[in-house]
Every structure is written in C-alpha cells, then in structure tokens.
Design a protein that fits this description.
Phos_transporter, 19 helices, transmembrane helix, transmembrane, 509 residues, 0% strand
C-alpha cells in the first residue's frame, strides 16, 4: 500500500473518532462527577468547568498506555500484514459502530461502558475479517479485559466501602464529629494527592525518554501529599472552623489568609418570610424561578448562541424530589450537617482525581483505533506493536471528550443523580476516591477497565454501608448491569456488518 492511499478513511476516521470521544465525554461524565453534583458539593456547571481541565490532562498525559491495549491486544494485527488497508478499514468501522452506539445510548439515558463499546466493535471487525481466530481470546487479550469488567466494580466497591466505614466510625459517629473531621480532612488531602502525583510521574509524559522509578514516584507523591495536608490543616481547616462554628462571614478567597485574618462580621440570619412578607409594594408576588422560565427567550443572535452553549449545564439532575426514590433516600443514615460540609471541598478534589483517571483510561477507546488508521495512512504499513501514540491525536480526542461532557452529559448525570443511593459529601468522597484508586491503577498497568462499573460499584458499596439492603436502588443497578451486557454484542454485530458490507462488496472489473 502506498502512503496516503485511502485518505477518505483517514478523514472519516477523524470524524468518527471525534464522535466516539464526544460520546465518551457525554456518557461517562456521570462516572467522575455524579456523586459531587448529587451531594450538592458542585453544581452541574461547576463540574463541567472543572472537568474541562482534568479530563484533558488525564487523557493527554496518561492516555497512551491503555491506547496500546485497545490497539494491539484485542485482535491479532499480524493477520493484516498482507493488507494494511484492511486493518485501516477495520478500525474505521469500529469507530463508526462505537460512536453511534454510545451517542444513541446517551440519548436514552443508558449509562453504558464506552470501553465495552469499542472492545465489542473491534471483536466484530476481527471475526468479520478472518473469523474467530483473529481475536485474542486468551488472558493476554479479551479474557483479561472481560475479567476486569467483573473485578472492577467489586474492587471499587470494597475500597469505597472500607473508606466510608473508617470515616463513619472515626469521624461521622464520633462524639465531637466536627472536631474529628477537621483532623481527618488533611489526611484525605494527603491520600488523594499522594496517589495522583505518584501515578502521574510513574506513567510519564508522552515523548519523555526516561521514566522515574516507581519507588521514587511514591516518595515524591508522599512529599507532595504531606505538603498539601499541612497547608489544608493550617489554612483550610482554620477557614472551616471560623466559617461554620464561628459563623463568620468568610468568602472562599479568605481561605488563603484564614490564620491571620481579623475577626469578620457574623453571618446575619434572615428571618423566615411569610406570604404577606413576599408581596411587593406594587401588590404582587415577586418572580419565582418557574415564572422566569416562561419569560420570552432572548432571540438575538448572541442570545441564541448563549442558550445553545449553556443548554447542557442548565439542568436539574439531582433527583431530590423524585417520589420513587423517597423510601431509598429515607433509609440512609443522616449525619451532622456541619461535619458533612467539611467533605465538600475534599470531595471536589476526589472528583478531580476520578475525572483525571477517567480521561487517562477512556480516551484510549477513541485514540487507539484512530492512531492505527493514521499510522497505516502515513506509512502504508502495519504499525509495530510498540508504535507510539501521536500527541496531537491524544489532544484531539481529549477536546472532543470535553465538548461531549459539556453539551450532552446531563442525560447520564440525570439518570445516576442520587438514583443508586442517597449521596452526601462524605459518601461521595469515598466513592470517588475508591473509583480513582481502581481506575488509575488499571491505567498504570495498561488494563482498560470501565469507569462506569467502578463508580457504580463504589456507590453500591457505600450504600450498603447504611446497613439496609433496600437503601440501594437495585432496579437502577440492574439497568446499568444490563446495559453493560448488551453493549459488546450490539457493537460487534454492527461493526462486523459494516466491515463485511464494504470489504466484500462487488467490485467493477
């Protein structure tokens, strides 16, 4: 094959890889930030703004490891050596199948696994091209990935529930839970920073010639975590104590000067208003949020553009007033509100870690096939097993993930928001940290696990810590599990049919 042949497949591959990454961002947004939004620690808009940075950084700096797994370890690419264009076609049809399925599932509110989607699509291509023997079914290929689908929710659930039980015993149920929490929050800062820094340094930056030894990365991460814990104890804990217990009117930026800031005015408690209090001087009630919603929309060009861009983040996704979930929420044990509020910022930190982990792992689902298409188109030959992932492809797909998250992610966020179990900042933090531990570890060893399964397993594990089996929405969990099962066969059939239709079409003589 001459280089730059079949440019149409390269161009179409770019389009559908963007669509696949868009679907990854839209469907998996709930994996990283559902618990933070559900607990009220973040608004949907704030979560999207944070995720723009964390998803991109995770995808760009850690995405190449699992990209190699998706690209080389599902089907035996050596069978395509005689015809590299056929491999190019196969990766293209895999992207078509995966992107269409994930975007369709997102529109229906199904929290599917994007890792399942691309894996099934590539399996379908392999079978359609050369039969079942093309697929690496053993532990070095599909079996290892399938095993991770069952292990990841269990491991994530165990880790998250262990974290929450420790937090519940030593902090939430303590006699002076708020004081205990002030000491516990810096420890959680240390744990989160330590894990993330160590794995970032150990995986290395794409293009770097040398990697830092793993033991050294642990020491560097521990030092960074200890520094963050010390700063949080001096500044953040002091700010929390003054704001929550002292009732001082402190703003968020006061956290940087909390130990030396003079005493601030106390927060003025607003009296409860009655119906008569709300009547204005003109004799009518002030506008409510529902009244505002029915006002004519801004029809100017700028207004239309703003409404379109903000549509995806101006959604209520918490499900707090859903009568079908009232019994499930009532079975969760409630803890002191002041103590729970201590976990809001650290939950945001753990959400960032989960988002970073998600970007590092799931970007491979789009990057792997696109990289193969690009390298075949550029060189005219089958890429080697150790061929590096081009950084611009990582960046390209990372941007698509961010766009999908912002514009379409609310569908899945709405499906999972407080739907599995009652979520509070302390519960959400433990679920997110358990997820990040599981997913980032998988990224380190090159195992593409499903972040959907990890966060779902973590939320179920934390929900069971209430001591009531019915504190978990098992119907919702069953829906998630069913969506995981149907993903692989659906994408495999679609990609296989598209590949066969193109590859074996009648040719003009």
């Amino acid at each position: 094959m001459n280089p730059h042949m079949y440019t149409q497949f390269f161009v179409l591959g770019l389009i559908f890889a963007f669509g696949d990454a868009y679907g990854i961002g839209a469907n998996d947004v709930a994996n990283s930030f559902a618990t933070s939004v559900s607990s009220g620690a973040l608004t949907l808009g704030q979560a999207c703004c944070i995720a723009i940075v964390t998803e991109f950084c995770g995808a760009f700096f850690l995405g190449s490891k699992t990209s190699d797994t998706i690209r080389n370890k599902i089907i035996s690419v050596n069978l395509f050596k005689g015809n590299p264009a056929l491999l190019m076609l196969g990766m293209f049809t895999a992207l078509v199948s995966s992107s269409l399925f994930v975007i369709f599932a997102t529109s229906r509110g199904w929290p599917v696994s994007t890792t399942h989607s691309i894996t099934g699509a590539i399996i379908g291509v392999g079978i359609a091209a050369f039969g079942p023997n093309t697929v690496v079914w053993g532990w070095s290929g599909v079996a290892k990935i399938i095993a991770s689908w069952f292990l990841s929710p269990v491991v994530s659930g165990v880790v998250a529930s262990a974290l929450f039980l420790l937090t519940r015993f030593f902090v939430l149920e303590a006699k002076d839970s708020f004081k205990r929490g002030l000491y516990a929050v810096p420890f959680f800062f240390f744990l989160t920073i330590w894990i993330d820094v160590a794995f970032i340094l150990n995986n290395g930056i794409p293009g770097a010639k040398k990697k830092i030894p793993f033991t050294k990365t642990l020491w560097i991460g521990a030092i960074a975590g200890a520094g963050a814990a010390l700063l949080s104890f001096v500044f953040y804990s002091t700010w929390l104590r003054r704001r929550i217990i002292g009732k001082e009117d402190l703003k968020w930026y006061h956290v940087f000067v909390a130990p030396i800031l003079p005493k601030q005015p106390l927060v003025v408690e607003r009296p409860i208003e009655t119906s008569s209090d709300k009547v204005s001087s003109e004799g009518h009630l002030p506008l409510t949020s529902s009244d505002v919603d029915v006002q004519p929309a801004d029809q100017s060009m700028f207004g239309k553009a703003k409404n379109f861009l903000m549509k995806g983040i101006n959604k209520d996704v918490r499900n707090l007033n859903n009568p079908k979930l009232a019994d499930i929420h009532a079975r969760a044990k409630k803890f002191d509100d002041n103590t729970e509020s201590l976990f809001q910022f650290v939950q945001v930190l753990s959400a960032c870690a989960a988002s970073f982990a998600h970007g590092s792992n799931d970007v491979a689902n789009a990057v792997g096939p696109l990289t193969t298409i690009y390298q075949v188109w550029d060189s005219g030959a089958i890429p080697g097993a150790k061929a590096s992932v081009t950084p611009w492809i990582l960046a390209y797909c990372a941007v698509a993930i961010d766009i999908g998250l912002i514009t379409y992610g609310y569908h899945i966020m709405r499906s999972l928001g407080n739907n599995i179990t009652w979520t509070t900042p302390s519960r959400g933090f433990c679920a997110e940290l358990g997820t990040s531990l599981t997913v980032v570890t998988a990224s380190k060893i090159g195992l593409p696990v499903s972040t959907t399964q990890c966060i779902t397993g973590a939320m179920v594990g934390v929900g069971l810590c209430n001591g009531d089996f019915r504190a978990v929405n098992w119907k919702m969990f069953g829906t998630c599990f069913l969506s995981w099962i149907i993903t692989v066969p659906c994408t495999a059939v679609v990609s296989g049919l598209i590949f066969a239709f193109i590859a074996y079409a009648p040719k003009m003589i």
